[in-house]
Amino acid sequence: MNLTDNEKRDIVRLIEEGKDIPEKYRFLLFGDKRQVEITWNNKVNEISNLSLPFQIIEQVDEPRDEKIKLLQGSFDFASGRQNAGWTNKLIWGDNKYILSSIKNGPMRNEMDNEGGVKLIYIDPPFSVGQDYTIDVEIGDGEIFNKEPSVIENFAYRNTWNREGNSFLQMLYERLYLMKELLRDDGVLVLRIDFHWGHYVKGILDEIFGFNNFRNEIIINRTKKNVTKNTKQLALLSGVESLFVYSKSEKFFYLNTEYNLKEKRESYWRATDDSAGVSGSPTRNVKGKTFYARKGCHFKFSQERMDELYKHGKLRINENTNKVQYLVEASSTGTIDTNWTDIPGYSFSTGYPTENSTQLLERVIRACTNENDIVCDFFNGSGTTANVCENLNRKWLVTDIGKFSIHVTKKRLIDTQRKLKKDGKNWRAFELLNLGKYQRQYYIYDGISERDEVKLLDKKRKEEAFQELILEAFKADKVDGFLTIKGKKGSTFVSIGPINQSLSRNHVEEVIKECIKNNITSVDILGFEYEMGLFPSVQEDAKSQGLRLNYKQIPMDIFDDQAVKKGKVVFFDVAAIEFKPIIKKNFVSIELTDFAVFYNENNIGIDEELKNGNSKIIAEAGNIIRVSKSKEGIIKRDVLTKNWYDWIDYWSVDYDFESKPEIIKFKKNNKVEEVWTGNYIFENEWQSFRTKKNKKIDLLSSKKEIRKNKTKIAVKVVDIFGNDTMKVMEVKI
Questions:
Q1: pLDDT tens for residues 215-242?
Q2: What is the rounded CA–CA span in Å between residue 110 and residue 374?
Q3: Which of 31, 303, 568, 686 keeps 20 to 30 A from 726, CA to CA?
Q4: CA 73, CA 69: separation in Å to the nearest integer?
Q5: What is the SS3 assignment for 317?
Q6: What is d(CA 168, CA 178) in angstroms, rounded to the nearest whole number?
Q7: Angle between helix 383-390 and helix 357-367 axes, rounded to 10 deg
Q8: Phi and psi (nearest 5°) for 633?
Q9: Is the peptide bond before 535 cis (omega within 30 degrees of 0)?
Q10: How many CB atoms lie within 10 A of CB 74?
Q11: Which residues contact 677 (CB under 8 A, 6 or more apart)?
Q12: pLDDT for 579-611, tens place per residue?
């Protein structure tokens, strides 16, 4: 140990006083061999090793298949469904547990069999405290500002403090898992801005190794107008960085050329324009000796210059007496680290922080070949998946926001329709949940014994919050149950998790406890719910004599005044009505009604709104523009004039129970398969709104049914990204 006497005395003193020892001493005392390490308050080096099963909620094979056509070999000719090969994956859930479950579960084997992960591109929400409100277009261009869900708030805003300790911890755990997923010649590209770039690079150096840092690429952020009134004149942040790291020394760039906007014509360029001094300062051409300019050196060796002259690609300029070489005409350029020639962001979907297509195309082309697997664990609007679809790359993308998943699904189907029209191939993609969520995973994963006090405090806070929810719901607290927390009239009340989705596992536990205690009616309150959870779970409860209602907890629960005034409104899952139209063996579906019970931004709006201003709110299942005149007179205009104004997307599965939902999990190092008792929704027909086409069809195409009866499932996604499904048995 190479410690000075002062350092030794300092350490002893700190130990005697019960104080923390500065981080620098760890390297001196224990000889840590890491080249670099960044630390922060409450840094935890423990990485999640959970392996949760993935649940396939939906599969999209053939984009809106009205007519069966001859498809690529991996598709079945009769049904239009993919029956072989890799299926792209769109996963909803917390990426920490998704990464851990891929790494430790059977999906890792599936990805390795397809060649492994070649590229991971991520654009994490690095602006701590950033507003993730999404603009949703209503009717003829009216904009509703949709607040992030409670789950998104927990992940992106409330969890990460502005000092960044929790943000760095979040990123550290996930980057470690991402490295584990990459194949040996794989590469990670991370987008970051100037606020956190230096910290994040330190983390990347620690995890990937300083020697595996390949480069920093500069990209456009946004173009801003700089005026004389701007306080930071000409110093506004206009760029961001892409940090490029490889898993090992085996990585190399695969494609380093890009298409130029305008073809570059041939021109002559000086041979001595390279800065700095290198090698001999002279070259001989046609018996003459030439000297490099001061502060420069020749680009080519003497041998190379002789070869260029021999082939007519070197000359002496008679006017300047300079040796020049020919730069030949080209329609492509070579990639360097300055990418400010293309936009860094796009606004095609209205999703915040949407990466531009040009940016992702350049990244993906440079780092992968066709059929390579590309992953993005902060999916956002789905640009990565969309570019992969067009460039014939396999992809897996994830996001914790349900609206993100919905936007991406629409975008991909639209792309697949275009590929289909152009006679090009595509792959099916699956929509998955990270299934069987367990509350204890979120509380105890990565928590040491010394944090038991914090856990107890957290438990007390959760119990207090549950009491607040019961108060807002006007229910009485009850004890003696595991899942039941209250009672309202003759109906018992269960409350789902605070910071995650209401899961099938939770609902099944509620049903089990109700049946055991002869309870016939229960309301389950939750902020969010797993995709595909309803209606099958309700039907299961009904068959056992239990009336189960799901009610969504509104954002207004966080408004103390709204709770005290009794103005918090809990709303039901949306309701769907449809009718089958049968002609011989062909069935089409007409959507006849869709009702929602949604509230947002409406509490105290009359008092909050300033004179002369207006705001769009959701109230009692309607989108309303609330206006206050200069005189203070309130006016309400309903924007959702028709029930279908709420619909952003709907789709049909004409044979719902044809594909059982099978989950795979590892047990004793063996992959086992179990049927969940549910079925995968196969997206056979769909209609949805886009920015270019806001019209939505209410009548599906015809589908031939070759059996006496079938169960038809209809799924509707509202303008906020919430999905609802209804199943009906139809006799042919």
A1: 999 998 765 544 555 555 455 667 899 9
A2: 14
A3: 568
A4: 12
A5: coil
A6: 15
A7: 60
A8: -85, 130
A9: yes
A10: 15
A11: 661
A12: 999 998 899 999 998 887 666 666 667 777 889
Dihedral (CA of 588, 594, 600, 601) sign: positive
> Residue 49 has what pLDDT?
82
Q: Which CATH architecture has domain 54-226+233-258+335-435?
A: 3-Layer(aba) Sandwich (3.40)
Please write the tens of the pLDDT for every residue from 358-402.
Answer: 999 999 999 999 999 999 999 988 999 999 999 999 999 999 888
CB burial of 206-230 (b: ≥16 within 10 Å; e: otherwise) equals bbbbeebebeebbbbbeeeeeeeee
Cα-to-chain-centroid distance, residue 13 = 49
Which residues fall within 8 angstroms of residue 699, CB to CB, at 6 or more apart? Answer: 581, 588, 589, 590, 591
DSSP class of residue 161?
-
What are the tokens at 100? 């851990």
Reduced to 3 states (helix: H, G, I; strand: E, B; else coil), residue 43 is coil
Rounded CA separation 456/573 (Å) = 33
Confirm if 422 and 389 have CB atoms less than 8 A apart.
no
Listed in sequence order, the residues at least 6 apart from 566 whose beta carbon sits closer than 8 Å to its beta carbon are: 472, 474
CA nearest neighbour of 590 among 640, 652, 646, 533: 652
Q: Are 323 and 316 in contact (CB under 8 A)?
A: yes
CA nearest neighbour of 702 among 581, 587, 579, 585: 587
Torsion of CA 564, 566, 569, 570, to 10 degrees: 70
Among 29-38, 343-352, 651-660, 696-705, the range scoring the smallest mean pLDDT is 29-38
The answer to whether the beta carbons of residues 436 and 504 sit under 8 Å apart is: yes
Residue at token pair 């229960």: 522
Q: How many C-beta atoms surround the C-beta of residue 313 within 10 A? A: 15
Distance CA 366, CA 359 (A): 11
pTM of the model: 0.72
Q: HSE on the CB side for 571, CA within 13 Å?
A: 20
pLDDT at 140 over 60: no
Residue 359 vs residues 195, 256, 363: alpha-carbon distances, Å: 21, 14, 6
Q: Distance between CA atoms of 525 and 495, rounded to whole angstroms? A: 5
**pLDDT(78) > 60:** no
CA neighbor of 194 nearest in space, from 241, 144, 252, 148 = 241
Which tens digits make up the pLDDT trace of 526-559? 877 776 676 667 778 888 899 888 887 776 666 6
* DSSP-derived 3-state class of residue 434: strand
Q: Is the pLDDT of residue 678 over 50?
A: yes
Q: What is the 3-state secondary structure (H, E, C) of 594-658?
A: EECCCCECCCCHHHHCCCCCEEEEEECCEEEEEEECCCCCEEEEECCCCHHHHEEEEEEECCHHH
Residue 72 clears pLDDT 70, i.e. is over it:
no
pLDDT tens across 495-522, in order?
Answer: 987 656 677 788 889 999 999 999 999 9
How much is the pLDDT for 137? Answer: 64
Name the residue with tokens 């423990």: 46
Helix, strand, coil proportions of the chain in percent (round to 5)?
Answer: 25, 30, 40
pLDDT averaged over every residue in the chain? 80
Helix (H) or strand (E) holding 136, with range, is: strand 134-138
Distance in angstroms (rounded) separating the CA atoms of residues 521 and 541: 10
Continuous segment of H or E residues that includes residue 175: helix 165-181
What are the residue boundaries of the structural domains of the chain, listed by start?
54-226+233-258+335-435, 266-321
Using CA atoms, how far apart are residues 208 and 381, in angstroms rounded to an integer? 28
